[in-house]
Amino acid sequence: MSDRIPCINPRCRRTAADDGESGEIICGKCFRTLPAATRQEHRRLWRELRKWERRITRSGDDLKANRMRRVRDRLSDQLNMHWDTCIKTQFLAPEKPAGLDAFLEEVGL
After folding, report:
1. Which of 67, 46, 45, 48 is nearest to 56 (CA)?
2. What 3-state class would DSSP assign to 32?
3. How many CB atoms lie within 10 A of CB 32?
4. Residue 97: pLDDT band with limits 50, 70, 90
5. 103 pLDDT exceeds 90?
6. In terms of Cα–Cα distance, which of 89, 85, 81 is closest to 45?
7. Rounded to the nearest 10 degrees, how much is the dihedral formed by the CA atoms of 35, 37, 43, 47?
8. Are strands 4-6 and 15-17 parallel, antiparallel or unpaired?
9. Which superkingdom, per the lineage (predicted)?
10. Percentages helix, strand, coil for the chain, rounded to the nearest 5?
């Protein structure tokens, strides 16, 4: 299974082909379980990143391309931070449901 990458959701058994670029993936089914605001923000960041990539490839001016690369790098950092703080934490440390166990833990028993 070394040529496959598992979904970040530990309860999901789906995998994707290893393209050599990404180390982590989320399958479509698990992505759809995320809150709508999280999905929209992730898609927005991806669209912006791809837009700047296209602009860089079409640019003939090196000075403009360097400025655009800095913008692209900032967007990439934002996307990585969103992945780590919003998406991965949703599956690796999910909120506890309101119930007896959560109440007893809160009380200290």
Report:
1. 67
2. helix
3. 10
4. low
5. no
6. 81
7. 180
8. antiparallel
9. Bacteria
10. 60, 5, 30
Residue 87 burial class via C-beta count within 10 angstroms: exposed 0-12, middle 13-18, buried 19 and up: buried
Encoding tokens for residue 6? 């598992």
Instruction: Give the DSSP letter string of 35-60.
Output: -HHHHHHHHHHHHHHHHHHHHHHH--
Q: How confident is the model at residue 93 (pLDDT cuts 50, 70, 90)?
A: confident
- State how far the Cα of 81 lies from the Cα of 32, in Å rounded to an integer: 20
Of 105 and 56, the one with more pLDDT: 56
Taking the alpha carbons at both ends of the chain, their separation in whole angstroms is: 43
pLDDT tens readout for residues 44-73: 999 999 999 999 999 888 899 999 999 999
DSSP secondary structure letter of residue 108: T
